[in-house]
Design a protein that fits this description.
Layout lengths: L1 H26 L3 H32 L6 H5 L1 H4 L1 H37 L1
Helix pairs in contact: 2-5
């Protein structure tokens, strides 16, 4: 239930941020605005990568070292929090890839608008 709630909230937040970015993107018609949007997306990507690194470090910390009886008896229960952190790291990396892709689109659009003018 917690996972579903977290995923629902993440999806809602992502949708809201995408809508805000789309509104900003629709206003961008000159190369300077496009370049600014590309820079904002690059900053978002960098922030997401840092977030992913933090989740990976936390997952490494939560992973049991050595012999863990719980892991041998119930492997699915023993690593639940570490697996969750790994999942959050993957989500952050995917968000960073998407932000980088959008930044590249805006950089290309800025170049094409500049070439047209």
């Amino acid at each position: 239930m917690k996972t579903f709630l977290i995923l629902s909230l993440t999806l809602a937040l992502t949708t809201t941020l995408a809508a805000q970015s789309t509104q900003t993107a629709s206003k961008a018609i000159d190369p300077q605005r496009e370049a600014l949007l590309a820079q904002q997306y690059r900053e978002k990507a960098a922030a997401q990568i840092e977030k992913a690194k933090k989740h990976e470090a936390k997952a490494e910390q939560l992973t049991p070292k050595g012999y863990a009886p719980m892991q041998h008896k119930w492997p699915g229960l023993a690593n639940a929090s570490a697996n969750r952190e790994r999942s959050l790291a993957v989500q952050a990396r995917r968000a960073a890839e998407e932000a980088n892709r959008r930044a590249l689109e805006h950089e290309k659009r800025a170049q094409s608008v500049a070439a047209d003018n």
